[in-house]
Amino acid sequence: MKKIKYLEGLRGIAAFAVFMGHLGVAFFIPTHEISLFAAINNLAFLPYFLKTLIIHIIILFTNGELAVWIFWLLSSYVISIAFFKKDNPYKILISYTSKRYIRLFIPVFFSILFAYLLLKFGLMYNHKVALTFTPPNTTLDGLYNFKPDILEVFRSGFFTTFFNFQEEQSYNSVLWTIQPEFLGSLFIFGMFGIIRHNTKRYIFYGIIAIVLIALNMLPLLAFVIGYVLCDYDFSETESTVILSIKKIETNIHQYNLPLFILSFILLLFGRGIMNFIKVPPAPGMLIVAVFIIYFCLRNAYYKKILSAKTPYWLGEISFSLYLIHIPVICSLGCFIVFGHNNLEGEIIASVITIIITIPLSFLYTRYIDKKAVALSNKVGDYFKKYS
After folding, report:
1. Model-level pTM greater than 0.85?
2. Predicted local distance difference test score (pLDDT) of residue 16
3. Model confidence over 110-148: pLDDT tens digits?
4. 256 pLDDT exceeds 80?
5. How far is CA 271 from its chain centroid?
6. Where are the domains of the chain?
7. Are 229 and 273 spatial neighbours (Cβ–Cβ below 8 Å)?
8. Is residue 48 classed as helix, strand or coil in its secondary structure?
9. Rounded to an integer, what distance in angstroms lies between the CA atom of residue 13 and that of residue 323?
10. Degrees (nearest 5) of the Cα angle 174, 162, 66?
């Protein structure tokens, strides 16, 4: 399936936000976050609203938690598109279900192996750096508190990452998102298999959403929301109510520029708004992520910005960037910053870590991630052909 450029660009920016957020947690937030914001507020030549804007832009583009919710919504939306196109839905369902594990397993396994080799050869410096902070950086110190074990690499790669993730024993802490990613995918595949194009399906969606909220299963809810948005955009089986809503929506979104400005301002202050109305952090970030996805799907200005070369290219390497950046930070980044634990040293370490991680992600995409996609597609095509 051909990629939707602006959604790929959004994925790229989200992955980079996770990377920057983890760089901040590793090197800056323990000692410099308050001083950074204080330094911005002390810039006398800037008006107050501009200082506030800069601070909220920094917060937004380093918000890894928000980015993860965006990943799940995007993943659900994109993989659901084929269900609502003219093809044999049964064969599509068989194909997607059969290939999903392989598509995720290969890049996940090699990211675990990469971290294992760094740990095995004594190249992880996160503990040494953690103790140089006052107080010690508990986030860095909490990683890789175990001896390298090749059997655990295979156990983690094949099973625990997908079905029983345990962060304290993981070679790659960001892999906590893979279990919801995998199980969420299977959930919407099953949901499609049962509901299909039933004209009353939005009632079922509402019931499912209520149950998931009651059970506090928000990652699954994110997948359901992404699926419903995809259904809304691509299904040819619609009720008169949905058609009327679409007509009203089309009229509203004729005002692209005002909606772009207003939605971006609301986005910048999204976390603050959620806090103000006392929405808990996780559902608050899910609401903001849904807001982002919705406007990126509707607004011409978001589409144009996100379809630009840089966001789109970041989108192409986004999964690889997401998978390998923690081992790189804990090895190369911490090696550079060790002994130079001051603002200048941390900036240099961060810049070099970014410069090295981006091309590594490109190579990882070319030689591992794309191979995983090709192999999983072959598996899916095989089951689709003989089903």
Report:
1. yes
2. 97
3. 999 999 999 999 999 999 999 888 778 888 999 999 999
4. yes
5. 17
6. 5-386
7. no
8. helix
9. 15
10. 35
With the CA atoms of 88, 90, 96 and 97 taken in that order, what torsion angle do they form, in degrees rounded to the nearest 10? 180
Is 346:27 a contact under the CB 8 Å cutoff?
Answer: yes
304-349 pLDDT, tens digit each: 999 999 999 999 999 999 999 999 999 999 999 887 767 788 889 9
CB 227 within 8 A of CB 208: no
Asked if omega into 135 is within 30° of 0 (cis), the reply is: yes
> Cα(6)–Cα(322) distance, rounded to whole angstroms?
19
What does the block give as tokens for 215? 């059970």
Both structure tokens of 65: 């938690």
**Could you identify the residue written with the tokens 């917060």?**
59
Distance CA 358, CA 325 (A): 9
Q: How far apart are CA 65 and CA 368, in angstroms?
A: 26
The C-alpha atoms of residue 387 and residue 382 are separated, in whole angstroms, by: 8
Q: Dihedral, CA atoms, 124, 23, 226, 252, nearest 10 degrees?
A: -170
Give me 287's structure tokens: 């609401």
Q: Which amino acid is at 114?
A: F
2 contact partners, CB below 8 Å, separation of at least 6 = none
For CA atoms 308, 314, 369, 6, give the dihedral sign. negative
Amino acid at position 338, single letter = F
Distances in Å between the Cα of 109 and the Cα atoms of 102, 190, 330, 362, 379 are: 10, 26, 18, 17, 18
Q: How confident is the model at residue 29 (pLDDT cuts 50, 70, 90)?
A: low
Q: Which of 197, 232, 205 lies closest to 221 in space, CA to CA?
A: 205
